Amino acid sequence: MGDDISNDKAPSVWSKVSLHWYHWAVLALSLILTFGAWYVTDQQVQQKTQARFEFQSNQIINLVRERMEKYEEALWAGVAALHMQSKPSDRSSWKEFAESLKVEERYPGINGVGVIHYVPTAKLENYLAWQRKELPAYKIHPPHEYKEYWPISYIEPQSNNAKAVGLDMAHEKNRYTAAQRSRDRKEAQITGPITLVQDSKQTPGFLFYVPWFSNNRVPLEYGDDSGFLGLVYAPFIMSNLMDGVLYNENRLIHFDIFDGDTKLYSELNIKSESFDQSPVFSKTVEMDIYGRNWEFQVQTSLLFREQFGSSQPTMILIGGILIDGLLFLIFLILSRSNKRAIEYANIVTRELKNKHKDLEDVQHNLQRRNLELEEANSELDQFAFVASHDLKAPLRGISQLVGWIEEDTKGYLTSDTENFFFLLKNRVQRLESLLDDLLEYSRIGRKEGSLQKVDIKSKVNEIFDLFNPRDDVSFTLDCNIKEITTMITPLEQIIRNLISNSFKHNDKKICKIHIKIQKLDDYYLFSFTDNGPGIPVEHRRRVFDLFHTLKPRDEVEGSGLGLSIIKKILDRYGSDYEISSEDGSGCLFTFTWPLDDEIKRII
């Protein structure tokens, strides 16, 4: 017979293992909790890194604007220097002024500073004669069709800009248009993209103009009747300007600059240090720069990803999935153990029906089967212990982690995110409560303690006091019984759950609870009365079902297992029970409990 049992196709036990719907409900709730924690944490990380990106990108753009304003101040200083001279400025006077500016030291990125005289056709001969006194080879170039001239007269340092001396701004559209606009608006302007004659690499650049008007009489060599004398200007090669503004080293942000369709400056290429081909963030910003619309295309670098990237959401997701897997494994093993116990019981029954052996053999087999059942129950107890300790520990860790995240992100949270955190903590607490109640339900009939004498009146008062009742709770106890001998643990579970339900479901200003205990001929009779909303007739059977609540889960505390636990205990002890309500207000729950001698027989 032993061979038949051991070879009773143990793999078939696994094939028959199936989880109940409430197991799947717990797993689903745990998954929702996991993905909820991951989503909230991921959103907070995104918000923080987005704020960092906005700060860094705005800082760089503002730095470019501030540097241009600094250059503008230097050009207006040139206008002031021209006004201070009592006669038309000459080349040596301008050189002295430019050297006092210390252009290369104070204004990195600027190629020089110079003067453009406005020369009407009528004054061209006087202007050329005046310039050739100091520079005999001086000439205006290249030729053009306009009847006015905007030649560069002086530029310092001249050694680096010799090709620019005599260059007429009217020969090219971008130079000419910006010069006229600066004169007409009487304000600083820059040209559209151009290539400077002094730039051997032929890279994009621009000219920066400020207008110069006469305070007194207009000279014979230059100027017009409106008092306009010319421009003070500075040439810029864009790459030199950016190198002067900021170095592309250990930067969190890279960018390109466009003027229309022309790319003025570029860092968004694989040659740039820490260039990220798949940036975390990117954006486009348009900005008016002295009459031109510059477009900044900004994106994060690899250094930004390293400093502000966070694996916290991923770790939460992985940890949650591992916990879900542990839950599934525990439920599966518990279900397998239960199936094995049932299989053993079926084998015993079949053997008793189909085999005729003497009483000694039958007793021997029964003893062996009982030992096997005890081993199966011991296995169930072991896994119940794992569920109550090893499973709840990660849940407490998640709850603590959520609390830390909430503290770290305090002040950054939106109202929606705060609500997500509230729901997250609520779901953790509910899952812990659900595990406790499931374990309590599974242990009914197996972990009941031992018979003991107890003062039932004192015990009921003690249970009630453990709830820390509020001032708006009225509790009365009618009991003329002193001591009873019973299994106190299951009876205490029933009393505790009934008092808890009266608290949770009461909607009155004063919660009234009345308990009456009396001894009849064949049993003890317990009556619990409250003034809550009562239970409609159509729900009085369903309330004993697992996880059944009369209200939506988010509107009531608890797991929906309280009355299921009560029903299982009362069925275990062969007790009768009934729920009734008067006019839909208040609820009366009565049940019988075995007398002292009867309880000994049952156990």
Automatic annotation (TrEMBL):
<dbReference type="InterPro" id="IPR004358">
    <property type="entry name" value="Sig_transdc_His_kin-like_C"/>
</dbReference>
<keyword id="KW-0175">Coiled coil</keyword>
<dbReference type="InterPro" id="IPR003661">
    <property type="entry name" value="HisK_dim/P_dom"/>
</dbReference>
<keyword id="KW-1133">Transmembrane helix</keyword>
<dbReference type="GO" id="GO:0000156">
    <property type="term" value="F:phosphorelay response regulator activity"/>
</dbReference>
<dbReference type="InterPro" id="IPR042240">
    <property type="entry name" value="CHASE_sf"/>
</dbReference>
<dbReference type="InterPro" id="IPR036890">
    <property type="entry name" value="HATPase_C_sf"/>
</dbReference>
<dbReference type="GO" id="GO:0007234">
    <property type="term" value="P:osmosensory signaling via phosphorelay pathway"/>
</dbReference>
<keyword id="KW-0597">Phosphoprotein</keyword>
<dbReference type="InterPro" id="IPR006189">
    <property type="entry name" value="CHASE_dom"/>
</dbReference>
<dbReference type="GO" id="GO:0030295">
    <property type="term" value="F:protein kinase activator activity"/>
</dbReference>
<dbReference type="InterPro" id="IPR050351">
    <property type="entry name" value="BphY/WalK/GraS-like"/>
</dbReference>
<dbReference type="InterPro" id="IPR003594">
    <property type="entry name" value="HATPase_dom"/>
</dbReference>
<dbReference type="Pfam" id="PF02518">
    <property type="entry name" value="HATPase_c"/>
</dbReference>
<dbReference type="Pfam" id="PF03924">
    <property type="entry name" value="CHASE"/>
</dbReference>
<keyword id="KW-0418">Kinase</keyword>
<dbReference type="GO" id="GO:0000155">
    <property type="term" value="F:phosphorelay sensor kinase activity"/>
</dbReference>
<feature type="transmembrane region" description="Helical">
    <location>
        <begin position="315"/>
        <end position="334"/>
    </location>
</feature>
<keyword id="KW-0812">Transmembrane</keyword>
<dbReference type="InterPro" id="IPR036097">
    <property type="entry name" value="HisK_dim/P_sf"/>
</dbReference>
<keyword id="KW-0808">Transferase</keyword>
<dbReference type="GO" id="GO:0016020">
    <property type="term" value="C:membrane"/>
</dbReference>
<feature type="domain" description="Histidine kinase">
    <location>
        <begin position="386"/>
        <end position="597"/>
    </location>
</feature>
<keyword id="KW-0472">Membrane</keyword>
<dbReference type="Pfam" id="PF00512">
    <property type="entry name" value="HisKA"/>
</dbReference>
<protein>
    <recommendedName>
        <fullName>histidine kinase</fullName>
        <ecNumber>2.7.13.3</ecNumber>
    </recommendedName>
</protein>
<feature type="domain" description="CHASE">
    <location>
        <begin position="85"/>
        <end position="297"/>
    </location>
</feature>
<dbReference type="InterPro" id="IPR005467">
    <property type="entry name" value="His_kinase_dom"/>
</dbReference>
<feature type="coiled-coil region">
    <location>
        <begin position="349"/>
        <end position="379"/>
    </location>
</feature>
<feature type="transmembrane region" description="Helical">
    <location>
        <begin position="21"/>
        <end position="40"/>
    </location>
</feature>
